[in-house]
Amino acid sequence: MQPISNPVPLLILQHPDEVHQAKNTAALLHRCLDHSTLQVGEQFAAPATMAGMVLLYPDTPGDVRLPAPPTWRQGPDGPVQTLVVLDATWRKSRRMLYLNPWLAALPRLSLQAAPPSRYAIRRAQGEDQRSTLEASAWALAQLDGNTGRYAPLWRAMEGFVALQQRLLRDGRARRTQAADHSS
Question: Which of 1-10, 31-40, 128-137 has the least mean pLDDT?
């Protein structure tokens, strides 16, 4: 696949537990974009300047340990220079915010009218939850105003999901055959 030239650079901060997850989409996302950085860890040094950085993360009004950050608004707040994405389970992503106050203080971008998830290989706890690739692709398209630019990401995602589903079916078939032969 030809990498996509994304005008807004993406900084993917990946929890270490996600690195070897077969169903993880962050590495695929990183390989598909010209302008992305992937860092693994729970704690990250604050960048020298955070001007223009926006965190893709929903509001957390029920969490008293996370102060309400400013919500980024397209236009008045200036262009996004870096979109920051956390690749972790919801519980671990909150922990990453607790451990990195600079992240929690970033203005946040929430997805607007996101389409239904296509990520059929992991169960989401909430209807609005998306894989890292889906959320990032939709946010980049939202910022860019060009959904067509990110169509290759959706195709890569569909291929990834199809591969994972095929591997799952093949694994089940092998286990069934092995069980039949041992009986």
Answer: 128-137
Please, are residues 156 and 1 in contact by the beta-carbon 8 Å criterion? yes
Query: Half-sphere exposure of 177 toward its Cβ, with a 13 Å CA cutoff?
Result: 6
Helix and strand element counts for the chain (H, E): 5, 5
Residue with tokens 């993360």: 57
Examine the pLDDT at 115 and tell me if it is beyond 70: no
Within 13 Å of residue 117, how many CA atoms lie on the same side as its CB? Answer: 18
Whole-number Å distance between alpha carbons of 22 and 24: 6
Residue 66 structure tokens: 């996370």
More confident residue, 56 or 131: 56
Give 35 or 25, the one with higher predicted confidence.
35
Q: How far apart are CA 74 and CA 109, in angstroms?
A: 9
Model confidence at 167: pLDDT above 80:
no
